[in-house]
Amino acid sequence: MLAEPIAPVGADPIAAGRAALEAGDAAEAARLFLTIARAKPADHESRYWLYSALMADGQPDSARPFLDEARDLHATSLFRGMGVDVQRFRADKAYCGDVGLALYSHQQMAAASLALGRSLDFDQLSLQHIASYGLSLLHQGRTDEAINVFQVAADTFQNSVVHEFLLYALFHAPDRMQRVADEARRWSDLYAAHLTPAEPRFDNDRTAGRRLRIGYVGPSFTRNQVAQFLLPVLDAHDPAVVEVFLYCAEPAEEGPLPQGCKVRGLDGMSDADVAALIRKDEVDILVDVWGHTAGSRLGVFAYRPAPIQVAWINFVQTTGLACMDYILHADSMAVEGSEQYYTEEIWRIGPIVAPSRPSPDRLDPVPTPALKNGYVTFGSFNNPAKLSEITIAAWAIILGQRPNDRLVLKYATFADPVLQRVTQARFAAYGARPEQLEFRGRTTGVDYLREFQDIDLALDPSPCPGGTTSCDALANGVPLLTQLGEDLYGRIGVPVVEPCGLSELIADGWDDYVAKALAVTEDYEALDALRAKVRPGFDASPYCDDVGFTRNLETTFRQMFDRWLAAERA
Hints:
Layout: H1 13-22, H2 26-39, H3 44-56, H4 60-79, H5 86-91, H6 93-105, H7 109-119, H8 127-138, H9 143-157, H10 160-170, H11 176-191, E1 212-217, H12 227-236, E2 242-248, E3 262-265, H13 271-280, E4 285-288, H14 298-302, E5 308-311, E6 326-329, E7 345-348, H15 370-373, E8 377-380, H16 389-401, E9 406-410, H17 417-428, E10 437-440, H18 445-451, E11 457-459, H19 468-475, E12 480-483, H20 494-497, E13 506-507, H21 510-520, H22 524-539, H23 546-569
Parallel strand pairs: 1-2, 1-4, 2-3, 4-5, 5-6, 6-7, 8-9, 8-11, 9-10, 11-12, 12-13
């Protein structure tokens, strides 16, 4: 329980509370901030600080309601500047829904979630509103709330797409391996298993050693994060060994694809019709590159249109489909006992999951920016959903040890001023000052690449590490600190860093992580020497050996096909 507050002293009561918090007297800081909050019922700033002080004082259950109050008050204070009719907002659920969707489209996730939450009419529940509500929560890192919303939506609407949102949200849960496994199997039971023939028959040529027909399925191959991983493989495929079929939504909207690939458009086609098309093409090995994320066509795989079906690249957890034969993982992701969570057989294909093609617009290398700045700039370009409490605590401890250092947090939704302030409050609970955080929104092309030149050391979150942004950091010369997670999903940073000759940047647990972050950045000259070997290490790694990886992949496909042939003849 909070003690009765005492009156703050000085002209600036927030400053007095901050001074007490920074001096290590969290209880006194909490009393000071509570005085302000009680005197100003609509003041969000005092509540942000009260949350930080209570967390620092070891009272998380008392702290969380104040963060919720601060967030909602802050979002409400922004409504008028956004043109929201506040009177109508209080009474009209449909209007709240329209406002929420508009705010969501502008990356204002905190205000969007407040509006969309108020829009929900459980007598006439809108699928669009509840799905967007869950996504707006997830994009703020409010994972438990998002999971609850998606669970309700999945149970209410029995909709395969909304159910996939639940699966994605569960990636961020602490007991995710079992929960994702259970939910993926439930997804399959509801939407896939009944479509799979008990004894599928195939007209594929059974000749051993012949050229294989490989089909890749995804919403797009050039307009999303899969492009930098898959296009190198498509370019490097040996046409004497494989014939490649690409199944995507709208071929006319794709960027350049290798001329040897046969491209099929799926837009407007049912899963059954797509499966029939794949059967007609007599594809031997059908590869899903997208998984349970928006735009998925996993329903096609339920019809078992190919003798061998494989999950790869964008989804490292189980699809839950009994008809999915294999999933491809890097060797270093192996954790004993992982197989129990998969309906697929895990096939380990070497040091990396896929090659990664650096942007042709990469800028010339620069010295580590600490040399000119006089302080270290850490960076994370990851989704706020990945900023777990333990990640924030560890990063805040690093910043607390280095009060002059900075942390750049970059993601589209960090354009939201409420999310910025919530994140500052979460960091302040563990000793970092709000001024040490810099927020950046979405950029593309050269502007995106240029931002890596501002970062001395990229920090990988845990237990949900980065993926595309991690490869981008190394490709652009920024050292990346990751750690050996407890489960295979928590280890996906290892096959990013290790093949580049940077094993010293793999931490064994959070204590080691904090110690390494401080040690690596203590000597700016040594940090610059480390930076100088990052980009060459990436360029010399398997990530840039498109042909070598693809030959290995083709061998893997051949082994899978030979195994199927042997089973057919048994």
